[in-house]
Amino acid sequence: MNAIGDEMKRFLIPGAVAAALMLCAPAHAEVAHPPLWTVHGAKGTVYLLSSLHLLPPRVDWHNTQIDTAMRSADSFVFEVPTGASERDEETKFILDNGLLPAGHKLHEELSDDARRDFHRALDLAGMDERNLDQKQPWLVEVVLTVQSMYRRNYSAEHTPEEEAFALASSTGKDIRYLDTTLQQLEFLQGADRSTGFERFSAVLADFPNQPGRESKFVDAWVSGDVGASAALISAGLRELPDEQTLLNERNRDWAQQIQGMLGEKRTFFVTVGIAHLVGPQGVPALLRAKGITVDGPG
Fold this sequence. Notes:
By secondary structure, the chain is of the alpha/beta class. It has one domain. Helix content is about 50%, strand content about 10%. It is built from 13 helices and 8 strands. The chain has helices at about 5-10, 15-20, 65-70, 85-95, 110-125, 135-150, 160-170, 180-190, 195-205, 210-225, 225-235, 240-260, 285-290; strands at about 30, 35-40, 45-50, 60, 75-80, 175, 265-275, 295.
């Protein structure tokens, strides 16, 4: 797979792209307290651990409650599989949906101001325009965002997903997924194709301002402040109603899947992005609305 595909696989994120943008490296070691929920059923128990899909170095999110829950799990559940067949599916999706029509170049579709902002974003991400100039705006937005985070030493290593998956794999535990690769890619692509260049221009203009907002988001996750996390996610999606609708639909689907898990005599450890777990349309709130007992943050 080419570099674009590799970046996409790293960034098959849950929640809206806006939510995933809100990350910034702390200057010193952080002890994180990521929100954890416990869902109780007649037969099964489900632990829901919130995650950020890329983390700066020196963030320690382990604690006794989380580690005990992980060790007790019979099954581990993640957002999307990342095997060889999924990489093939991803490559096909990008070829079918991530390229501009033949003869078109991204920079030629941008206004003078947007082209200036594009070059500034390329500098911040450390990328060459030639590697992106034939790509659709939604794909370039994802790649620029991820690459700029990599330049700030963010990584998927040592995230809750990475370590939970390593534990499940090494101990031969049951592993399941809530989404397919196609569902995640379609979410990243967005619901409204008509505003692609308009939205991309707005993202480029705002690109240098992202770290300031990102630092607030990582601080909220580190401190376990679900109210602040929900407010930041809501603000990030305010101008993206289609993405908000898609996020809510996915949360309802996941809540239904988790309700089904409670009918099994097993303990599940579910690790997903925090965008799916906070606010009135987050999975814990949806489960509570069904009358299911959920311990953890309100």
